[in-house]
Write a structure and sequence with these properties.
Blueprint: H1 11-16, E1 30-36, E2 39-46, E3 55-59, E4 81-85, H2 103-117, E5 122-127, H3 129-140, E6 145-151, H4 165-169, H5 175-182, H6 188-199, H7 208-222, H8 227-243, H9 250-256, E7 261-266, H10 276-283, E8 287-292, H11 299-302, H12 304-325, E9 355-359
Parallel strand pairs: 3-4, 3-5, 5-6, 6-7, 7-8
Antiparallel strand pairs: 1-2, 2-4, 8-9
Helix pairs in contact: 2-3, 3-9, 5-8, 6-7
């Protein structure tokens, strides 16, 4: 390890380090730990409103946590049994014992969890880094994925936006430690304001309650001894994934995804370029594209009703296609009846001007 790199916090130390406060759990949510060999994952669940609903798994982005899905999950609880995972080193999950924060390492954690819990196949959601992770999972383990929903997925770009460069610089050895020293006087409020300005198309959409909750979570995370290490190593993992070519490259894997895919891109995204939307729609085999001109990097937080509606429409079309192909007399799978395909959020108050492009699904 270069001397300028921040030393990895030993798992034993991280495990006993006191936590500054409890992780927030919204009404209707549950939080538990799933222990795997060399790995412990915090899992936030919002059970479906009735028995037999198909499972869904939500994967957050760099610097995020399972809380990033708390706005979307209740909007889908009548059609899926939802769980959101904290990737290793984020949220309430401690670092992995092997210190592997690569995209492959995170994908392996998701696969190991799904295999251990026997939850697959799931409706898999991913945002940013979580979108890259979900793409890799869907490509290498198609048996675990029913549908794939990607919100601003971190797929390789040749010309990265200038506004995304500071985040990418976290991958450079020593930068995280330098940034920590330079910003040691920043308050949690200043840090949260900066993150929201970067991630939201319109930060004013965040309610005062939401801002206070984000500040409390920021204060909690800054007290964790491995916070910056997890950030830096995960950022490095994204950069390394961007440089990987051949069959293991993310775009190559995207082309091998078999699951019907919903792609969501924001026109004001400062981290993942809006211009990548067209390439993604061409690459994923059975895809549809939802473009939100006023959204930023976290559309599922800014426009949860709109994203929920698009997913419902994806599910409805998949069910209709399955029904058309079903042999007469086949009753289908438990929890996958056509009644779940309703699109109840069509008149949602948060729905911005948006465009949905149906591409290849059912063709």
């Amino acid at each position: 390890m270069p001397s300028t790199d921040s030393p990895r916090v030993p798992p034993a130390v991280a495990a006993v380090a006191p936590k500054p406060g409890a992780v927030q759990v919204a009404e209707g949510e549950r939080l538990r730990s799933a222990g795997l060999p060399g790995l412990t994952l915090a899992v936030r669940s919002r059970p479906g409103t009735r028995e037999g609903l198909p499972p869904a798994l939500y994967v957050h982005g760099l610097g995020g946590s399972s809380q990033n899905w708390s706005a979307l999950m209740p909007r889908l609880e009548d059609i899926v049994d939802g769980e959101a995972v904290d990737l290793p080193g984020f949220g309430d999950s401690p670092p992995p014992d092997d210190g592997d924060y690569s995209v492959t390492g995170h994908a392996r954690a998701v696969i190991r969890y799904l295999d251990a819990e026997r939850r697959g196949p799931v409706h898999l959601f991913g945002n940013s880094l979580g979108g890259a992770v979900a793409t890799r999972v869907a490509a290498v383990r198609p048996d675990l994925v029913r549908t794939l929903t990607l919100v601003s997925p971190a797929l390789p770009e040749i010309r990265v936006q200038r506004t995304a460069l500071p985040t990418g610089l976290l991958a450079v050895p020593g930068v995280a430690a330098l940034f920590t020293r330079l910003t040691k006087e920043w308050t949690a409020e200043q840090r949260v304001s900066g993150v929201m300005a970067l991630c939201y198309g319109d930060p004013n959409r965040v309610t005062p309650e939401g801002f206070r909750a984000a500040v409390e979570e920021m204060e909690r995370r800054l007290g964790l001894p491995y916070f910056w290490d997890a950030m830096a190593r995960s950022a490095r993992g994204v950069v390394n994934a961007y440089t990987l070519g051949g069959r293991h490259g993310l775009w190559s894997q995207a082309g091998r995804v078999q699951a019907p895919t919903l792609l969501v891109y924001g026109g004001r995204d400062q981290l993942v370029s809006y211009r990548m939307a067209a390439r993604a729609a061409r690459t994923f085999r059975e895809s549809r594209l939802l473009t939100l001109p006023d959204a930023g990097h976290v559309a599922m937080m800014e426009y949860p009703d709109t994203v929920a509606t698009a997913f419902r429409e994806l599910l409805a079309d998949c069910e209709a296609l399955k029904g058309a192909r079903r042999v007469p007399g086949d009753q289908g799978e438990p929890g996958e009846s056509g009644e779940q395909g309703g699109s109840g959020a069509q008149d949602a108050p948060d729905r911005p001007d948006s465009t949905t492009h149906r591409s290849k699904l059912g063709s």
